Every structure is written in C-alpha cells, then in structure tokens.
Amino acid sequence: MFRSIIWYLFFFISLLISMPWSIRVKMLDKKGLIEKKDELVNKVTKLWANSLLKVAGIKVNVYGLENLPKDKTVLFVGNHQGNFDIPIYISKIPTLKGFIAKVEIEKIPGIVTWMKHMNCVFMDRSSLRKSSEAIIKGIKILKEGHSLVIFPEGTRSKGDNMGEFKAGSFKLATKSKVPIVPITINGSYKIMEANKKKWIIKPAKVDLHIHKAIETSNLSKEEQEELPKKVKEIVASKLI
User: Fold this and answer.
1) What residues have CB less than 8 Å from 125, skipping those under 6 apart?
2) What is the pTM of this model?
3) What is the chain's pLDDT, residue by residue, as a tens digit (240 residues)?
4) Distances (CA, A) of 153 to 58, 78, 84, 181
5) Domains and CATH numbers, the chain
C-alpha cells in the first residue's frame, strides 16, 4: 500500500513538473518546428513513463526491437491487459507514437495535454458515428507521418485472455497504407487489475514482444478481411 501511495503522489507531482516542458512544446508547434517539437515530446514522455514504471517496481523484458521498421510510420496493434500498457509502450518502444484512447481520458487534466502533444485520438465507442470519426482522424494522422497505437479489443482484458479484435480498427492501416506491427504484452494485468483492491499497485514482470511488420499497401479484399484474425493469432502466439 505504501508503494501505491508514493506512486500516486509521484504521478501527480510529475505532471505538475512537466508543465514548463508542455509550454515549450506549444511554442515549438506555434513556430512550425514540428521535428523539434516531436523530439521533445518523445524525450519528456519516455522519461515520465520510465519513471512511473520504476516507482511502481515494474520490470519489462522487451523482445523483437529489431522488427521495428526504420524511419517508417506504422500502426501498432496489440492486446490490452491493463492500465500500465500505455506507459510500457511509451517507455519501451523507441519511436514517438500516439494512441487511440477512450474519450473519458480527455477529461483528465495534465494527461490530456500530453496526449494531444503525442497526436492521440479520443474515441467514443458508445457512438458508431463518433467512432467512425475517430478512425478517419486517425487515418489522417497516419498519412501525415505520425505512428499510432490501437488496442482492437476496445477494452482491457484484465488477464491473459483476449477479446475479439474489431475489424474497424484495421481500417487505420489499410486506408493509410502503413505497415501493422503486432505487439504482445504479457503480465501487465498483474500490476493493478489482478489485485482485490483495484487501486493498489504491485511490482510485476512484464514481457513485451514486437512482431515482424505486416505490409498493408497491396492487400486484396480477402486479405484485408482476414487481417484481424491473422494479427490476433500473431499476438496470441506469445501469450503462454
């Protein structure tokens, strides 16, 4: 419990400390210095995410970094076990990436500011129209050269089982013609979701597997239809 209290205190204090950097990011954006802005966002968010993992006592084993396409915009597609998946992605996958996130996060001060700096998209899954609008916005961001992450289950599994991979998620890649990089995360649910008191944070070991990229630019209609099943099987292959 003591570790959990320290973690929450650190979380909120770190957001306050990051405010001057956020102002700097906005200034770079206003001046049109997008490359410098992205470099700063990546540096600050990685430092922040690494610190959150360290304070929580989380060790992440990363496999397959060599599978990351160099200097390419990609769509990361993976399973979603727990709340710590996002800081794990931020800290352990080197490239800057935004997330397709649930719209509720947009109401959290501090966090939403940095998520917008990262080109995140907020999706309201309760509305088909708004979900479609979020996908269209995500396609635009990918075409502009910014990588994204989506969890096609749509919610946390809170364990080592996976839900259905929703087909609509894959339009992000097929419409923008960017490669898909499947990601398997294993063990992150043990940090919070497996605890009786869900706010408690416990140290855990997590495995992060980065699989080989799947090109989407020349897929047939049949191959596009099989894509959710194919990616899900790849992700599931490391859940043992």
Assistant:
1) 102, 103, 131, 154
2) 0.94
3) 889 999 999 999 999 999 999 999 999 999 999 999 999 999 999 999 999 999 999 999 999 999 999 889 999 999 999 999 999 999 999 998 999 998 888 888 889 999 999 999 999 888 888 889 999 999 999 999 999 999 999 888 888 889 899 999 999 999 999 999 999 999 999 999 988 888 899 999 999 999 999 999 989 999 999 999 999 999 999 996
4) 24, 9, 16, 16
5) 58-236 (3.40.1130.10)
Structure token pair of residue 91:
């800290």
Question: Quick check: 238 and 209 in contact, CB under 8 A?
Answer: yes
- The angle formed by the CA atoms of residues 40, 44 and 49, to the nearest 5 degrees, is 145
In whole angstroms, how far apart are CA 231 and each of 63, 67, 202, 210? 17, 15, 30, 12
Residue located via tokens 């940095």: 114
Given a contact cutoff of 8 angstroms between Cβ atoms, the answer to whether 148 and 121 are in contact is yes
Structure tokens at 16: 């306050």
Strand 204-210 relative to strand 180-186: parallel, antiparallel, unpaired?
antiparallel
